[in-house]
Design goal:
The protein contains 15 helices and 15 strands. It is α/β, with parallel strands linked by helices. It folds into 2 domains: 159 residues, Aspartate Aminotransferase, domain 1, CATH 3.90.1150; 258 residues, Type I PLP-dependent aspartate aminotransferase-like (Major domain) (Aspartate Aminotransferase, domain 2). The longest helix has 22 residues. The chain is globular. Bound molecules: 4'-deoxy-4'-aminopyridoxal-5'-phosphate. The site of 4'-deoxy-4'-aminopyridoxal-5'-phosphate has 15 residues, from helix 5.
């Protein structure tokens, strides 16, 4: 076993040199060594996208054990939105870790949990009275939102949408749309979950109200409002392909839910916390969900998730019905309070919009000269390109995979997504500089030209 030489590892955070630099092929020898150990020690089901051994990250850079500096256009799947190892987050984590690491909030409560709840109650859409419960992961938050909605309404059924992704636990696998790799072979799944059609303007050409009518007809005829506790929907589908619904779609669903005693749950695990240029994507659509689930960007990398919503719904559960040993861990809460400070006071919403303009502008430019880019879409710093066969318009997953692989080999971390696997998504940390972002996009453009 070879451990990396700690003295050679740079500290992470914004002081890392902000340039793409390859000193070996990817993966270099030290990374290869770790990946060989991973293959022996970790099950194949836990995959990885970028074949490196990460040792430091910050700004818009991830450094590997071989000394390569890669441009980060993925933020560890929308998590390090304020930047990796952000100094305010690092200081808060260090201070809290020296104070106490755990008491269990359900045993001995502490202030930071309550402060995070207060912040979420204030920041999430709507000025009604809200309450927040904290958990560890996005999937756990979604599971709890469903529990709460069922308890409040006394109804069993839940509707999720085509292209939806909500996690890998049993209930959230049932809510998730895509079989491979998320569900195949892992059933049977939780019952009383139904799937409604989404608004996917590039592929269905429907207006928002027409797409909503289609979904509402399905819910009324195949489920029945009297049986339906909640609908769970990402305001913009993340794993499903960064699908922005047509205008009026979400609004009509919210209205229908309100008229039918159905809890509207916005899963903002990927879209939340400045990612879309608004604090929450729901704000950009002008909708006020009954419950909002959050995770990822909330704590800059520490495991934390939340369900926030109308006090009367959140209070439906009996005492002891919600919680968990680690939910709202004090170190994660300290990180969240620091990250929320950055979101609110360090220009993150504006930066997300600027990053979005660069991403969208550059990708539209590419699209103008390359018909294999069928669609460029997104909001703020959550932007994607959908690749198609230029002749038939059919999804081209092989092209997306090949462009992503070539980009990674040149030191640019990009992620694919989409039900058809034909989408490359861009969700860089907002701490990335314009030059680095443009260099990353140059590499992606060159990879596309070579394919
Ligand atoms: N909901 C959405 C919208 C997500 O994007 C994700 C993660 N990609 C999840 C839920 C699950 O979150 P976690 O991986 O933290 O369980």
């Amino acid at each position: 076993m070879t451990l990396i030489d700690a003295t050679a590892v740079p500290l992470g955070g914004p002081s890392l040199v902000q340039e793409r630099r390859l000193v070996t092929a990817i993966p270099g020898p030290r990374s290869q060594e770790l990946l060989a150990r991973k293959a022996d020690a970790v099950p194949a089901g836990v995959g990885h996208t970028v074949p490196i051994q990460a040792v430091a990250a910050g700004g818009g850079i991830v450094v590997d054990a071989d000394g390569n500096s890669l441009i980060d256009l993925g933020s560890g799947i929308a998590v390090t939105t304020v930047g990796n190892a952000h100094p305010k987050v690092v200081a808060a984590v260090q201070a809290q870790a020296a104070q106490f690491t755990h008491t269990c909030f359900m045993i001995s409560p502490y202030e930071s949990y309550v402060a995070v709840a207060e912040a979420l109650n204030r920041l999430t859409p709507g000025d009604h009275v809200k309450k927040t419960a904290l958990f560890n992961s996005g999937a756990e938050a979604v599971e709890n939102a469903v529990k709460i909605a069922r308890k409040y309404t006394g109804k069993p059924a839940v509707v999720a949408f085509d292209h939806g992704y909500h996690g890998r636990t049993n209930l959230t696998m049932a809510l998730t749309a895509k079989a491979m790799p998320y569900k195949s072979g892992f059933g049977p799944f939780a019952g009383e979950i139904y799937r409604a059609p989404l608004s996917y303007p590039f592929r269905d050409g429907l207006s928002g109200p027409d797409a909503a009518r289609r979904a509402i007809t399905m819910m009324e005829k195949q489920v029945g409002a009297d049986n339906l506790a909640a609908i769970v929907i990402e305001p913009i589908q993340g794993e499903g392909g960064f699908i922005v619904p047509a205008e009026g779609f979400l609004e009509a669903l919210v209205e229908w839910c309100r008229a039918n005693n159905v809890v509207f749950i916005a899963d903002e695990v990927q879209t939340g916390f400045a990612r879309t240029g608004e604090m929450f994507a729901s704000d950009g659509f002008g909708i006020v969900p009954d419950l909002v689930t959050t995770a990822k960007g909330i704590a800059a990398g520490l495991p934390l998730a939340a369900v926030t919503g109308r006090a009367e719904i959140m209070d439906a559960s009996h005492a002891g019905g919600l919680g968990g040993t680690y939910g709202g861990n004090p170190i994660a809460c300290a990180a969240a309070l620091a990250a929320i400070d950055v979101f609110e006071n360090d220009g993150m919403l504006e930066r997300a919009r600027e990053v979005g303009e660069i991403l969208t502008g550059r990708l539209r430019e590419l699209q103008a000269s390359d018909p294999r880019i069928g669609d460029v879409r997104g909001k703020g710093a959550m932007v994607a390109a959908e690749f198609i066969d230029a002749e038939t318009g059919e999804p081209d997953a092989a092209l997306a995979a090949s462009v992503a692989k070539a980009s990674i080999a040149q030191g640019v971390i990009v992620l694919t997504c989409g039900t058809y696997g034909n989408v490359i998504r861009f969700l860089p940390p907002l701490s990335i500089g314009d030059d680095l972002l443009n260099d990353g996009l140059d590499v992606v453009a060159a990879a596309l030209a070579d394919n």
